[in-house]
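[Automated response] Your request has been received and processed.

Submitted sequence:
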Amino acid sequence: MIRILFLGDIVGEPGRKAVIKRVASLKRELEIDFIIANCENSAAGRGVTPKIAVELLRSGIAVLTSGDHIWDQKEILDYMPDEPRLLRPINYPDDTPGNGSIVLETAKGKVAVLNGQGRTFMNPPLENPFTQLEDEALRLREEEGVKVIFLDFHAETTSESIAMGWHLDGKVSAVVGTHTHVQTADEKILPEGTAHLTDAGMCGPDVSVLGRNVESIVWRFKTGLPTRFPVAKGQVRLCGAIVDVDEQTGKASKIERYNELLELGF
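Generated structure:
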């Protein structure tokens, strides 16, 4: 069995400092073999910089996934081709910098990580993730000989995320959603052995609106007028999922939500 920890969207400086501080101890305490984290909001809440990506990878995270905010920090365009452990959604056009999947060797065999983005209410509208992710999962199994395949599916609607889980049931080991920053309570093992959670939630300030300052978001909803949405401060809640996978078959045997409020503020 290989145990995978997936951490949901890391939001701003508080989120990334908390993740970096906690990753090594989580690995020991939870007996984690492989860690994946979504980093697309880690730079002041929008995108990721090369420096931040390096810090997160050095902390013990094996692969960084992303989504619609991956290009918000422009310097990432030049960095992406040189760091295969930082993924962008696979359903961008073929000539887009970077990759949507990676295979890494571990002490328990090969692990593949996939990153895809939904299309419903998402901008920009990308290629069909259902066909592209299914094709890539098949390629990974047949050409690369990978059994353990983990997908971060970055999507706005619960229906699209749930549909992706059913679509890839038996073809990948886990489908875990990101993007909404709200952890859902529907974790399950699907009939053909794929673990699914509609959204992993976020790693960011607990007293916030999706990681942003409460007052500014409420003011925007109240007035309809434009304003800045600074990342909130204070205690950080880390959210994600822990998935146990049989490395011989690629089938998941267990999925549980990870949700922890850290005592320290950031």
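Summary generated for your ticket: The radius of gyration is 17 Å. The chain has a mean pLDDT of 97.
If you did not submit this request, please reply to this message.
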